[in-house]
Write a structure and sequence with these properties.
By secondary structure, the chain is an all-alpha fold. The protein is built from 12 helices and 2 strands, in the order H-H-H-H-H-H-H-H-H-E-E-H-H-H.
Length: 316
């Protein structure tokens, strides 16, 4: 039935024309662009620390858990399962690796969707964020990149992660020292996750002499996710213990300053310093360190930097 649904959507896509297809490709691509994370980062730094933190934490946790499921289930893409599926050519560059669950859907749900959940007492943020998440999920089917169960499971998985993360945050804040427990347990889980995806067997299938999915590339994606989770955990712990910044009572100039300083720090480490590691580190160590530093900078180093700048700029 899943293939029949995709074939029906494929007919709609072809009838709608290239302009509509291109619009859905752009919408879908936005959700996994690295710059997209500046939205929850900016909320965390400048507007509401707790709500932005929920989105960042949910993404870091769900990204790793989703890669764990992907590399365990090892489900091939729809067009591999059925040659009648013709995915949008423009979307193929991002439709690599295994299909189940949808990474685009997980990213959209745990970043923007988590913000909607955090602001759920206000109608319009919840409506807009839910609409965006559903459109991204639908786009993955419309473009022929995922089956309906790929996106449905991704939605359920992401919602569970958001709920669990919010409960875990409440639990940590209820007693002193619980942040250390979460840090140690989280890092142990990250190590276990990376060991598992490295040593587990993967299917090796060829079509016309071409490997359908390269296990090494899928393992690299896991090391990226593991880096995000580890960098987030260490940065979160250090920010709690050493910085403890607040978003309450700050003005527009302070918000602008924070965003500029934070964005410069994160982009510097992600695009320049972190990327340089690939020149002398291995294919697994380089993404682990690069993405780990990116989230460490976003959660700890950027707040430390703009807190120091604020002491000079706003001190009497």
């Amino acid at each position: 039935m899943d293939i029949d649904i995709l074939l029906w959507l494929q007919d709609l896509r072809l009838a709608a024309g290239p302009a509509v297809e291109h619009a859905f490709v752009l919408l879908s691509s936005l959700s996994i662009n690295a710059l997209f994370l500046l939205v929850p980062f900016g909320i965390y730094w400048c507007f509401d620390k707790a709500k932005g933190f929920l989105a960042i934490a949910s993404f870091a946790m769900a990204n790793a858990s989703n890669q764990l499921v992907k590399n365990t289930a090892t489900v091939y893409r729809p067009w591999i399962r059925d040659a009648r599926i013709q995915p949008a050519a423009e979307a193929l560059g991002e439709a690599t690796g295994y299909s189940f669950p949808s990474g685009h859907t997980v990213t959209a749900t745990t970043t923007i969707g988590a913000l909607g959940w955090a602001w759920r007492k206000r109608v319009w943020p919840l409506v807009l964020t839910v609409l965006y998440v559903l459109l991204v999920a639908f786009s993955r089917n419309f473009l022929g990149c995922h089956t309906p169960q790929d996106v449905l499971v991704a939605l359920v998985e992401s919602c569970l992660v958001i709920w669990f993360t919010s409960r875990l945050i409440t639990w940590v804040d209820a007693a002193e020292g619980r942040d250390l427990i979460v840090l140690v347990a989280g890092l142990v889980l990250v190590v276990a996750f990376l060991v598992y995806v490295t040593v587990k067997p993967y299917p090796i299938d060829y079509v016309d002499g071409k490997l359908l999915v390269d296990p090494a590339k899928m393992t690299v994606d896991c090391f990226k996710a593991g880096g995000c989770a580890a960098g987030f955990l260490v940065g979160w712990f250090m920010e709690r213990r050493l910085v403890g910044f607040s978003t309450e009572g700050i003005g527009a100039k302070q918000r602008v300053l924070r965003f500029v300083v934070g964005a410069v720090v994160v982009l510097l480490f992600h695009l320049v310093i972190g990327k340089a590691f690939s020149a002398f580190l291995g294919e697994f160590a380089a993404p682990l360190l690069r993405y780990g530093l990116t989230f460490f900078c976003a959660v700890f180093l950027a707040p430390l930097a703009f807190s120091l700048v604020e002491k000079r700029a706003f001190s009497k």
